[in-house]
Design goal:
five-stranded parallel sheet; FAD/NAD(P)-binding domain; FAD/NAD-bd_sf; dihydrolipoyl dehydrogenase (NADH) activity; globular; 3 domains
Length: 459
């Protein structure tokens, strides 16, 4: 059964899909948005938002434990996981309701159901066909596991399972030391879990600058979070008390449960992409810099496109594609210009190139770096946080990397993004006035130092 033809048919209502829909509707394009689950996708319901709520609950627990250091007498009686979940779910529900209202008011045709690409310009849902002059694929991602490692939802779990636990596990093994792994390890430790991370790569948060990884590892040691790096997983066995994990070298670790956090895979199987001739690689949809697939008038956005799997990347790609379809000729998105934040304790925030990648791109003799220790920052001392801001620049050129570690540094990524994307020189940032006392000041101080005029720092 065929219906009317739309300017844009979007398959997937996560960050990339709904952003495409909202922007396309603003540009007076007719839009149908198809989602098999809930509007907002993984980020809103099973990822970014609930995870950060869990982390904040853990932060409150830590602050209560440590309150006497600030002259406040308080006692942590316990963790009410039902209450934590109610708080978390309340945040999600409020945002979900708001997003539903936005889509409804934008005159978008919203379709609930499992969509399948049945022709290059057609998506079918429950026998109803939606034809688009343009089609946007935005089907998102799922929690990956390793070959032979089955998720049972009770002892061997994914991040989605972890967000729905009705208890604080006494102990947990986290398989994977990337963003998802360290965030859950951090949250669980704050809530009282004995945590060990297993990572096959040589360091935690291995995609970040090496000095950032070292700082996170130091902080985790101090917090009592165990980790084994350079140790690939071999097998897991069930025990009376939970699980026993064997890692390279034959070492075993036991805990109540195993969280598998080895990354996310693209949700592209059995949706008709291959049948319609969409070019794929390892399950990802291949696009050019304008997010066009090899099939005319078919675009792809978000986690199914190779690159950073970040909600704000998909969101921006959605806006880009809507404007591209509308003939606005938007500037291509610079992947290195997308901010990255890991919301562990301490937080990690970064922009642009690591020092190693900058040297690889420009040559070791053409790259300079500077570390500003947050010990010299008044607000950081008030917060009792440790860490640094590291700048990477091309000699006599712009700043090409900003890497930060410490409490709340994710809130500094906005200015860091402007510095990188506007190709600012250290001297240009140094002349800007940064409010005192703020952690934002530390960005100014770091640029003062790199510009050759350090004040609260050594050259």
């Amino acid at each position: 059964m065929s219906g009317e033809t739309f300017d844009v048919v979007i398959l997937g209502g996560g960050s990339g899909g709904y952003a495409t829909a909202l922007r396309a509707a603003q540009l007076d394009l007719s839009v149908v948005l198809i989602e098999k689950d809930k509007l907002g996708g993984t980020c809103l319901h099973r990822g970014c938002i609930p995870t950060k709520a869990l982390l904040h609950a853990g932060e409150v627990a830590d602050q209560t434990r440590e309150s006497e250091a600030f002259g406040i007498k308080a006692e942590l009686i316990g963790i009410d996981m039902a209450g934590v979940n109610a708080y978390k779910d309340g945040v999600v529900a409020k945002l979900y309701k708001g997003l539903q209202g936005l889509v409804k008011s934008a005159k978008i045709t919203y379709v609930e159901g499992h969509g399948r690409l049945v022709a290059p310009n057609t998506v079918e849902v429950d026998g109803q066909r939606y034809v688009g002059r343009n089609v946007v694929l935005a089907t998102g991602s799922y929690s990956r596991t390793l070959p032979g490692l089955e998720l049972d939802g009770t002892r061997v779990i994914s991040s989605e399972h972890a967000l729905n636990l009705d208890r604080v596990p006494a102990s947990a093994i986290v398989l994977g030391g990337g963003v998802i792994g360290v965030e859950f390890a951090s949250a669980w430790k704050s809530l009282g879990t004995d945590v060990t991370i297993i990572e096959a790569l040589p360091r935690l948060v291995a995609a970040e600058d090496e000095e950032v990884s070292k700082a996170v590892e130091r902080a985790f040691r101090k917090r009592g979070i165990g980790f084994k790096t350079g140790k690939p997983f071999e097998k897991v066995e069930h025990t009376d008390a939970g699980v026993r994990v064997t890692i390279a070298g034959g070492e075993t670790i036991e805990a109540e449960l195993l969280l598998v956090a080895v990354g996310r895979g693209p949700t592209t199987a059995d949706i008709g992409y291959e049948e319609q001739g969409i070019a794929m690689e390892r399950g990802f949809v291949l696009t050019d810099e304008r997010l066009r697939t090899n099939v005319p008038h078919v675009f792809a956005v978000g986690d199914i496109v190779p690159g950073l799997q970040l909600a704000h990347r998909g969101f921006q790609q959605g806006i880009f594609v809507a404007e591209e379809i509308a003939g606005k000729h938007p500037a291509p998105i610079d992947e290195a210009g997308i901010p990255r934040v890991t919301y562990s304790d301490p937080e990690v925030a970064s922009m642009g190139l690591t020092e190693a990648k900058a040297k690889e791109q420009y040559g070791a003799d053409k790259v300079q770096s500077y570390n500003y220790n947050l010990g010299g920052n008044g607000k950081s001392q008030i917060l009792r946080t440790q860490g640094f801001i590291k700048l990477v620049r091309v000699a006599d050129g712009p700043v090409v990397g900003v890497h930060m570690v410490g409490a709340r540094v994710g809130e500094l990524i906005g200015e860091a993004q402007l510095i990188y994307n506007w190709e600012a020189y250290p001297a240009e940032v140094a002349q800007l006035v940064h409010a005192h006392p703020t952690q934002n000041e530390a960005l100014g101080e770091a640029h003062l130092a790199l510009a050759g005029k350090p004040l609260h720092a050594h050259a």
